[in-house]
Amino acid sequence: MSHAISEELLRRFDVPGPRYTSYPTADRFVEAFTDNDYIQALQQRRAGSMALPLSLYVHIPFCESVCYYCACNKVITKHHSRAAEYLRYLAREVELQVAHLGQGHSVSQLHLGGGTPTFLSDAELEELMAMLRRHFTLAPGGEYSVEVDPRTVTEDRLKTLARLGFNRLSFGVQDFDPAVQKAVHRVQPAEQVFALVAAARRIGFESVNVDLIYGLPLQTPASFARTLAQVNELRPDRIALYAYAHLPSRFKPQRRISAAELPSAGDKLGMLSMSLDALIDAGYVYVGMDHFALPNDALAVAKRQGRLHRNFQGYSTQPDCDLIALGVSAIGRIGATYSQNAKTLEEYRDLLDQGRLPIVRGLALTRDDLLRRAVIMALMCQGEVQFESIELGHLISFKSHFARELEVLEGLAAEGLVRLNPGGIQVTEAGWFLVRAIAMVFDKNLQVDLDRARFSRII
After folding, report:
1. What is the pairing mode between strands 136-148 and 168-174?
2. What is the pLDDT of residue 293?
3. Do 288 and 306 share a structural domain?
4. Which residues span the domain enclosing 432?
5. How many domains does the chain fold into?
6. Residue 1's pLDDT band (boundaries 50, 70, 90)?
7. In what helix (H) or strand (E) does residue 338 lie, and over which residues does it extend?
8. What is the CATH number of the domain that holds 451?
């Protein structure tokens, strides 16, 4: 056993906190930010940043059945005809975006999320990709990924995805234990997942990710150890290991989960500690924030070379670029702004029917937001902050501007999570496993808002 980090340290830092796919976090978005503000950001980009590649995110909300743990924005339906109508509205949204942004921008990253993107038929996926290619230029060597429900795809479907240009797959597994799968209403035999991953490798996908969740009903440390052993046998290129956050008051499907069947806090912590040890012992690199990758995977290479980035989908190897978000509830970033689309299909369609972009809230970042974002992302992605580079980029004195934060970091340094030196801050090997807690020190919103109940716990 490698004992990546002690359970005692994990327990002490198990507090609510953001995931920092953005800073400020999405809970800070305001309705005062409108589609007009977004259009202004698009036009500014058109005037000054045409040469920089874009990232695209497309949200496909439909699922045939509900997974009880799910906190995503989704629509449960067996009526596949709804997808055709949704694609028509997506096409309208793209046309409105491009009218302000300009045609033919280079795209180096595309992600289809959901919901279940593979709810779409082969013909609908072809229609979607053809529509995107009409308006954008997908650059050679980009990252083109799609989330896949193993219950809804075959080897032939994977071949279609490859032919359409996707080179990365993410399979939602969560747990291989049949009793746990039944308890969360997501039954998918391990043999099915193994066969699909083998097919993906034959077809030539560059990277296969598997999502796991610990803390689900009926999970025990012993049962999750068996799942981890199967995952190690499966040997995906990347693993995302998430903690289940039971928030039935916010997410209606979770009300079908019996709280009495959830593992204790101690068992949940034990599962995380065991997972860290098991995956690192199996040769995976801990990239940070729930993500693991094999040493030769692009994500692990990017971490070694200090080229990691972070966006609304998590860690990425692509340079920090503007993100055009399409579809219901999708969140995007253009310049110094964030924006989010309407969360219901009805409102999304209604705004597009009016000829308006379906943006209902967002945020224009202040100079202080941009400064703190730079520090937080440097910690989350490179594991270090060089005072001089922040000072030159933001025209501040780091030690005077962040005097309070540096004082707090002294305590984390005493815990062995960071090293403070005259020129900067270095996250230690142990600190990587608690990097959210380190980043939270620089979050101004948390300093004035002690109510962190809106966030899931770090562990």
Report:
1. parallel
2. 96
3. yes
4. 1-24+367-459
5. 2
6. very low
7. strand 337-341
8. 1.10.10.920
Both 5 and 46 in one domain: the answer is no
Flag whether pLDDT at 446 surpasses 90.
no
* Residue carrying the six token digits 């290991």: 241
Same-domain pairing of 108 and 175: yes
Q: Report the distance separating Cα 399 and Cα 423, nearest Å.
A: 10
Q: What share of the chain is helix, strand, coil (3-state, %, to 5)?
A: 45, 20, 35
CB atoms within 10 A of CB 401: 16
390 and 292 fall within a common domain: no
- Tallying the residues shown for the chain, one arrives at 459
**Same domain, yes or no, for 255 and 379?**
no
DSSP letter string over 4-55? -S-HHHHHHT--B----SSSS-GGG-BTTS-HHHHHHHHHHHHHH-TTSPEE
430 and 9 Cβ atoms separated by less than 8 Å: yes
pLDDT value of residue 52: 84
CA distance 5 to 8: 9
Q: The pTM is what? A: 0.92
The two beta strands, 75-76 and 62-63, are parallel
For β-strands 285-288 and 291-293, DSSP reports them as antiparallel
d(CA 149, CA 143): 19
Rounded CA separation 247/365 (Å): 29
Task: Let me know whether 304 and 318 are in one domain.
Answer: yes
Q: Say yes or no: 272 and 405 in one domain.
A: no
More confident of the two residues 331 and 457: 331
Tokens at 273, concatenated: 């500690």
Q: 328 or 321: whose pLDDT is higher?
A: 328
Q: Which of 136, 226, 142, 138 is nearest to 181 (CA)?
A: 226
Position 311, amino acid: N
Q: Which two tokens stand for residue 442?
A: 């620089």
pLDDT at 456 over 70: no
pLDDT at 458: 58
Dig out the tokens for 175 from the structure. 């747990």
132 lies in some domain = yes
Question: What CATH number did the domain enclosing 219 receive?
Answer: 3.80.30.20
Question: Can you tell me whether residue 31 is helix, strand or coil?
Answer: coil
Residue type, 272: L
Residue 122 has pLDDT above 70, yes or no: yes
Other Cβ atoms closer than 10 A to 354:
9
Identify whether residues 32 and 20 lie together within a single domain: no
